């Protein structure tokens, strides 16, 4: 982000340190407007996962332990991004990896999943209205980005940037569930649930998972692109900066031969396990097929404003996607022209982030609880920038 005044030193620090880490916020949005002019090799990693209901170690398991969901929609979020390559004259060319997922479930769905996983008994006389979906993918590829500098006159400077990525799909999972469950007692309920599941890693050779049409075994594949854009506005004298970046401003991955199951769970297919809990036979009503899917990537927004005060810099920021805001507030302390420490708090998952920054590298951690067994959210970011 000769003799030098303290104000000039603050300005240089504000301009230098943002160049260390392009990816910002919980959604790992990269701002191509921050590409520097110098020649260097770089590598960056940003990873975050969190959910509203249970500890992350339980989220894909049995949902044991503390459970305190939101009254409305509960989400699970995964965002991971790595990029490594070379920079010169505002250009960056690098190898790219991305993994993203967003799970959305209403309170009824969340409660039913926990009670089912725990075999803790269902709420007698309750009607659960189910509404659940997951959208997730993994991809690797390459990215080319470029920044442009505009002098607006006076004390203001504007940097613009654009990036273009080629994406090779590695995995996709799209799943929706809707319907109604009415409890008869603590172990039994009547159900009318519709489930639509597409997963590139579905076991197509196992009849219990997928009934390949006409016995045809096909390998799924995906190819696509993404366009990113960003702007940074800086005031030279005060050091104030304002930035806006949009990842996947336009983006799509076209998948071929994607396995899909459509299943209806009804009273006609239910049976009971040894403990008397109701179970359903999905194969009785399941329809399997291969589909070609055009996946539009959801845009992700990053907004931030920062203001230097002495050797400190305060920042307010927010990420946004699919109707969800992830606000943050932070403060950075410039130890000297080479070193800085940054601390911030995210208000959606209540995580605290702490990072150490040097002109050549940075490393940061984020958690809502120092006990990994009970943490609902955690993240890691790091990177290197080596001039040549």
Summary?
Helix content is 7%, strand content 60%. By secondary structure, it is mainly beta. The strands form three sheets. It has a 16-stranded antiparallel sheet that branches.
Please describe the structure with a list of short key phrases separated by commas or semicolons.
single chain; 388 residues; mainly beta; two-stranded antiparallel ribbon; 3 helices; 20 strands
Contiguous low-pLDDT stretches (5 residues minimum) are: 1-21
What percentage of the residues does DSSP assign to strands (E)?
over 45%
Q: What is the H-and-E element order?
A: HEEEHEEHEEEEEEEEEEEEEEE
SS-based structural class? mainly beta
* Count of strand segments: 20
Radius of gyration: 24 Å
N-end to C-end Cα span: 20 Å
Explain this structure to me?
The protein has helices at 6-16, 56-59, 107-118, and strands at 23-24, 29-30, 40-51, 74-88, 91-105, 127-151, 156-183, 189-199, 221-235, 241-266, 270-272, 278-280, 287-296, 300-309, 312-321, 324-334, 339-346, 351-358, 361-367, 377-387. With 388 residues, the protein is mainly beta. The strands form three sheets. The chain has a 16-stranded antiparallel β-sheet that branches. The protein has a two-stranded antiparallel ribbon with strand order 1-2. A two-stranded antiparallel sheet has the order 11-12. The longest helix has 12 residues, at 107-118. The two termini are 20 Å apart. Residues 1-21 have low confidence and may be disordered.
């Amino acid at each position: 982000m000769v003799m030098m005044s303290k104000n000039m030193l603050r300005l240089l620090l504000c301009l230098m340190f943002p160049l260390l880490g392009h990816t910002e916020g919980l959604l790992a949005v990269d701002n191509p407007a921050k590409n520097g002019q110098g020649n260097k090799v770089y590598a960056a990693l940003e990873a975050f996962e969190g959910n509203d209901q249970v500890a992350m170690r339980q989220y894909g398991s049995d949902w044991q332990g503390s459970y305190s969901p939101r009254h409305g929609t509960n989400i699970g979020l995964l965002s991971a991004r790595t990029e490594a390559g070379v920079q010169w004259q505002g250009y960056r060319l690098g190898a790219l990896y991305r993994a993203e997922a967003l799970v959305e479930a209403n309170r009824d769905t969340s409660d039913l999943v926990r009670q089912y996983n725990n075999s803790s008994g269902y709420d007698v006389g309750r009607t659960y209205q189910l509404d659940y979906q997951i959208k997730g993918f993994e991809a690797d590829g390459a990215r080319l980005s470029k920044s442009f500098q505009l002098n607006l006159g006076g004390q203001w400077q504007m940097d613009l940037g654009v990036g273009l990525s080629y994406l090779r799909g590695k995995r996709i999972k799209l799943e929706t569930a809707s319907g109604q469950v009415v409890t008869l007692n603590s172990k039994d309920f009547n159900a009318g649930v519709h489930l639509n599941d597409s997963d590139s890693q579905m076991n197509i050779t196992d009849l219990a998972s997928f009934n390949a049409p006409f016995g045809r075994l096909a390998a799924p594949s995906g190819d696509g692109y993404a366009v990113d854009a960003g702007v940074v506005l800086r005031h030279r004298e005060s050091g104030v900066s304002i930035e806006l970046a949009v990842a996947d401003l336009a983006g799509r991955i076209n998948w071929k031969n994607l396995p899909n199951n459509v299943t209806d769970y009804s009273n006609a297919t239910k049976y009971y396990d040894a403990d008397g809990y109701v179970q359903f036979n999905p194969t009785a009503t399941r329809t399997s097929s291969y589909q070609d899917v055009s996946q539009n990537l959801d845009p992700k927004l990053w907004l931030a404003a920062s203001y230097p005060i002495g050797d400190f810099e305060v920042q307010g920021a927010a990420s946004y996607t699919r109707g969800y805001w992830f606000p943050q507030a932070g403060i950075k302390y410039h130890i000297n022209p080479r070193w800085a420490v940054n601390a911030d708090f995210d208000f959606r998952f209540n995580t605290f982030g702490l990072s150490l920054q040097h002109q050549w590298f940075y490393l940061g951690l984020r958690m809502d609880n120092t006990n990994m067994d009970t943490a609902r959210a955690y993240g890691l970011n790091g990177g290197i920038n080596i001039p040549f």
